[in-house]
Amino acid sequence: MEETDVQVRARTFVASVDISDIQSDLAPYVVAANAKVRKEELGEGESGTTITTPKGKHIITVNSLESEERQRFTICHEIAHIVLGLDSSHTEVPPWSFAKRDPNEMACDTFAAELLMPFGQWRERVPKEEPSLEIIEFMASEFGTSFVAAASRYASLADIPCAYVTTERGRIRYAARSTSLRRAGAWISPRSPVPAGSVAHRLRAAGVNDVETGEVAQDVWFENWEAGLDLWELARHYQAFDTTVALLWFSEEDLPEVERTRFGAKVEDDGGLAELTGEMSWPSGKRRR
């Protein structure tokens, strides 16, 4: 199932219920999915499961030992399985593995994010200032989610070129990109090493819990990217889990000017002289290194 299809299904589901108090009570979603939630102590690494009774009632069980934010995400993730009709595959993929995570689980994560942080409410509440640690923490608190979930949502819905990256054990596990970055063809390869020269790489090498913001070259993170342009990187390292997350952003003016075909492929310069048009070529105003 394509990500856009999941988003449409999720937003249609959200529009069918009263979400005025959804930040503190997920009951409207649970009722709409014909489900019931139970909280029990489950095994380590087991966040939740769903069974369906012979009468069609769905019983969602979440791990009471996990944080409240994690339990809320699990409830919405399990509702996604119900609404989308997707089978579960909760086998954990080791961080060092090059195996892809199950597509059904990825789709349900996308659906869960739409439920926890509804599009309309998010756009109304997100501050318009420059991205910062304080803004991500504020949005996480507003919607009862983890810092990681809020950062990913922030990047996905940002008006400026923005990306969010999760890394584990020194390798990239997940990357979310804003619409402008997707259109520009910006790509961060999953399962590749955390790039040297990034703030995330520096924090992980230090081996302590820390948060840092710094300026790095855009082509440090993005593959096959134009050199000479900078971006801002806000990185946070969790030493106990060997996990580092990074929020990347820059202004629209600092997007590389790349010509693409109607199929999205980059048009390569053959090295010949540009055609004379009679018009002056002015500097683009982009900030170079």
Automatic annotation (TrEMBL):
Domain of life per record: Bacteria
Pfam families attached to this UniProt entry: Peptidase_M78
Domain named IrrE N-terminal-like: residues: 36-153
Name of protein: IrrE N-terminal-like domain-containing protein
